[in-house]
Amino acid sequence: MKRFCTLILLALLLAAFAQAAPKLKFHDAKQFTLVGKLMPGTPNPYHRIDTVKYKGFDKKELLQVRESAGMSIAFKTTSRTIAVKCQYGEVEWPQNSTGIAAHGFDLYIKKDGAWRWAGSGARSQETLDKAQNLVTDMDGTEHECLLYLPLFAEINALEIGVDEGASIEASPIPFRHRIAIFGSSYTHGTSTSRPGLTYPAQLARLTGLQLLGLGCSGHSKLQPYFAEALADVEADAFIFDSFSNPSAKEIKERLFPFIERIQKAHPGKPLIFQQTITREYRTFNTARDKFEAEKIAMAEQLMAEAVKKYKDAYFIHPNATADDHESSVDGVHPTNYGYTLWAKSIAPEIVAILAKYGIK
Question: Which residues contact 11 (CB under 8 A, 6 or more apart)?
């Protein structure tokens, strides 16, 4: 009898909770503002490059440029709850990034004029298509939101869920200008905990500049077909993390033709190249140390020539290494803190360079 009464009480409590919990209405995210979009007009709005129009990519790159890394959705809502429901295409399951970073969502809300983390989440492989709440029990006033999209997943359709009766509408792009950024797994965001913690995302929030991400993990090697795609990008300036993946030989063969192709398409626009960061895995491995030293030296040598030869070329040196050398996940990729160090280390130089071109 006691057990029966307990079950009745539990059922009543669950029924009361179900009645109290607000029902959600889901809205197609395409009606809101897509931020950080490299190339408008792709058949799938969450792809970074139209892989039908641009050729030369290998199988891995074809997936990478279809992933939504670097993009976010801007909207305003009075909802107390914000949820997402996603239909995925191909999904990667990297071991050195969290599930939230790889195929999850990361929500920021503006508070006192600054972007603050509000909620994040990811589904399991078995429940990818199920809706998930990112934040609940908010105060019901209007909030300006920025929803960062997955780094290692292709999105076919996305919906944002809010309380029935709550308002939701597109916000303007919250960042200024269009700054394209092409790079390696670092720019892609490998080993971050959340999509909003890549160094381009942190740099955008730090400077107010809109970064159009094209990070391609392991595949940023100054390839001519990437230069062809970037030649068609509408951007005010370009930032490159192009010396992290290629060998010294590849840098020597490809750098100047790459610069010349971009400059031909974008004369007078600043091209800011970053030296690669220090990888901790070279500390005790002599072969890796030699490989890293050679490509760093080659980049230093050629960029010293490039900044003299090409009027609008620049070379800067990021830092993602903490003083205690504890800012790496796997010996290659930084932790969240390492990426914060990276963004902060380059922000002053990038702002100063862009200011010369009236990009403020």
Answer: none
Q: Which helix (H) or strand (E) holds 211?
A: strand 209-215
Q: What is the pLDDT of residues 128-182, one digit of tens each?
A: 999 999 999 999 999 999 999 999 999 999 999 999 999 999 999 999 999 999 9
Picking from 154, 159, 161, 160, the residue whose alpha carbon sits closest to that of residue 88 is 154
What is the DSSP code (8-state) at residue 282? G
**How are beta strands 313-316 and 33-35 bridged, if at all?**
unpaired
pTM of the prediction? 0.93
Residue whose C-alpha is closest to residue 212's, from 228, 233, 184: 233
Report the distance separating Cα 298 and Cα 255, nearest Å: 10
Q: Which of 93, 82, 49, 217 is nearest to 158 (CA)?
A: 82
Give one DSSP letter per residue of 76-128, joined into a string.
Answer: EE--S-EEEEEEEEEE---TTS-HHHHH-EEEEEEETTEEEEEEEE---GGGT
State the DSSP string of 121-178: E---GGGTTS-EEEE----SS-EEEEEEPPSSEEEEEEEEEEETT--EEE---SSEEE
